[in-house]
Amino acid sequence: SYVLTQPPSVSVAPGETATIPCGGDNIGSKSVHWYQQKPGQAPVLLIYYDTDRPSGIPERFSGSKSGNTATLTIGRVEAGDEAVYFCHVWDRSSDHVVFGGGTELTVL
Amino acid sequence: QLHLQESGPGLVKSSETLSLTCTVSGGSMISTTYYWGWIRQAPGKGLEWIGSIYFSGSTYYTPSLYSRAAISVDTSKNQFSLTLSSVTAADSALYYCARQYEVIQGAFDYWGQGSLVTVSS
């Protein structure tokens, strides 16, 4: 079955840029979505279809893809960005949703 | 503003059937644009998709739960439901319902707050 690989944790200083990778075979052919989940809360959609932001999501959050990796980039990181971030794709070959394992962002 | 709310028993005995309902308000489930999904999250773990349903009743399921999970829809009540049979402790989790935007390949753009289900022996 299709697997999305995310590092368990990423740390960044306030004001810096955080990059969270999501690796998957041939991910370039799939649409990637990203979510932010803060403790005790439901996930929130951050990025859909690789690069689009829902209304209300700051421009500091952006998505990209290159090769077998999709990346969520968070610019000018704030303490309030501490959360777990998940990527998600639809695997056409098996007809099911796949989530990455999640990356916990720590703001130093 | 669309709102999703899960409801159902918080405690289920091992080997019995878990049943949850998601009530959608602020919009109709009858739309060619959306699927409606169930996702669960075990304590301290990641997100696991269970399955999704279209308003017509067409469904997709994750392979690992295909034989035990069933998702149904009642458009007259603007609700969709999940049943999971033969539950074990491994099924203890926070269960979310969510709207999937622009068909089955799309993102989950609206989520409920989650319903905690504990399986007891």
Structural summary, described in words:
The complex is a heterodimer of chains A (108) and B (121). Chain A is an all-beta fold. Chain A has strands at 9-12, 18-23, 33-37, 44-47, 61-66, 69-74, 83-91, 96-99, 103-107. In chain A, the strands form 2 sheets. In chain A, strands 1, 3, 4, 7, 8 and 9 form a 6-stranded mixed sheet that branches. Helix content of chain B is 0%, strand content 53%. In chain B, the strands form 2 sheets. In chain B, strands 2, 4, 5, 6, 9, 10 and 11 form a 7-stranded mixed sheet that branches. Chain B has a 4-stranded antiparallel sheet with strand order 1-3-8-7, with no helix packed on it. Chain B has 121 residues and is an all-beta fold. The mean pLDDT of chain B is 96. Chain A binds chain B through residues 1, 31, 33, 35, 42-45, 48-49, 54, 86, 88, 90, 92, 94-102, and chain B through 37, 39, 46-49, 52, 60-63, 96, 101, 104-109, 111-114.
Task: Write the topology of this structure.
The complex is a heterodimer of chains A (about 110) and B (about 120).
Chain A: E1 9-12, E2 18-23, E3 33-37, E4 44-47, E5 61-66, E6 69-74, E7 83-91, E8 96-99, E9 103-107
Parallel strand pairs in A: 1-9
Antiparallel strand pairs in A: 2-6, 3-4, 3-7, 5-6, 7-8, 7-9
Chain B: E1 3-7, E2 11-13, E3 18-25, E4 34-41, E5 48-53, E6 59-61, E7 69-74, E8 79-84, E9 93-101, E10 108-111, E11 115-120
Parallel strand pairs in B: 2-11
Antiparallel strand pairs in B: 1-3, 3-8, 4-5, 4-9, 5-6, 7-8, 9-10, 9-11
User: How would a textbook summarize the main sheet of chain B?
Assistant: 7 strands, mixed
Q: Helix amount of chain B, in percent?
A: under 10%
Please identify the structural class of chain B as seen in this structure.
mainly beta
Number of helices of chain B: 0
Number of DSSP-assigned strands of chain A: 9
Low-confidence stretches of chain A: none
